[in-house]
Amino acid sequence: MTTTTPETPQAPTRPKLSPRKRAQRFRLAQYALLVIVVAALALTVDWPAVRDSFFAPEDIKLTLTSGLGTALKNTIIYTAGAFVIGLVLGTVLALMRLSSVGPYRWFATAWIEFFRGLPALLVLLVFGTLSIAFPGLVIPFDPYGTVWVGLGIVASAYMAETIRAGIQAVPKGQVEAARSLGMTPGASTRKIVLPQALRIVIPPLTNELILLIKDSSLVFILGISTTGFELTKYGRDLGNQTAGLTPLTVAGLCYLVITLPLSVLVRRMEARQRKER
After folding, report:
1. Cβ burial, residue 86 (10 Å; 0-12/13-18/19+)
2. 25 lies in a domain?
3. Between the chain's N and C termini, which has fewer beta carbons within 10 Å?
4. What is the pLDDT, as a whole number, of residue 9?
5. What is the CA angle 245-235-138, rounded to 5?
6. Residue 45 DSSP code
């Protein structure tokens, strides 16, 4: 007679999580960790000291009423002029870089590598002291002209590479079609290639504009007068008077007021280009 041993009941196995569920739980853990870190920082910060140093109400009022509008206007003027010079010069350099003529390519390559390697601060300093090497030399619309040329030259080196990439992204078939219609190389470049290339590189060129806005803070090296102050120089000098950082904080927030809409614009343009592809 055979005896059967009773089977031991097995513990129920937990169902495995799908990759989607695991990803959701991982994201929730990250969010929870972020909330914990932010809460810990918020509880340890000395908020009264932060307010007195960075957001003193009386210093905010003084900053807003002592010439902030002029500094903001100067920042925009410096940036706009440098961007125009950089765009025009960068387009010429990009075409020279793609030219079949050797000296054009060599000159453009040397220009791009040289000014991409130099700090913008040094370039501004050189153009601000040109009158020492060339007595009687006056750059028109000074100090705006000096800033436009200095920052514009540096920007042209970066924009040239961006525009060159845009030109090379234009399908060669369109150029060949223009040539078959009897267009000269110059006409096909002006009417076919450049319009499409500039449309392609609008987002990265907008990023260059944002960088130029921040580079305009280097204008202080020129020793400009009060009427030529840009945001950083204005905030720094006023901060020295008030012995606080509130004016510089307000100036920094003004940079955000300019750059954040541009950043949103860049993202929308990039999203539109992805949809069109």
Report:
1. buried
2. no
3. N
4. 57
5. 150
6. S
Task: Please tell me the distance from the alpha carbon of residue 62 to that of residue 40, in angstroms, as a whole number.
Answer: 33
Contacts 24+ apart (CB under 8 A), 101-105: none
Determine the structural domain holding residue 164 and report its residue range.
Answer: 59-276
Burial class (CB in 10 A: 0-12, 13-18, 19+), 198: middle
205 part of a folded domain? yes
Mean predicted confidence (pLDDT) in 234-252: 87
d(CA 4, CA 107): 95
Q: Alpha carbon of 232 to those of 20, 59, 137: distances in Å?
A: 48, 16, 28
**Dist. CA 254–CA 67, nearest whole Å:** 13
In a domain, 6, yes or no: no
Start-to-end CA distance of the chain, whole Å, equals 80
Q: What is the pLDDT of residue 30?
A: 92
The reported pLDDT for the residue numbered 180 is 77
pLDDT at position 277, please?
A: 61
209: nearest Cα among 72, 79, 61: 79
Q: Which two tokens stand for residue 175?
A: 């150029």
Is position 38 within any domain? no
Reported as half-sphere exposure (CB side, CA atoms, 13 A), residue 162 has a value of 23
pLDDT band for 57, please (50, 70, 90 cuts): confident
pLDDT at 3: 56
| Radius of gyration for the alpha carbons in the chain, expressed in angstroms and rounded | 29
Which residues, at least 6 apart from 208, have a Cβ–Cβ distance to it below 8 Å?
83, 86, 155, 158, 159, 162
pTM: 0.82
Q: How far, in whole angstroms, is CA 221 from its chain's centroid?
A: 21
C-alpha 119, offset from chain centre = 16
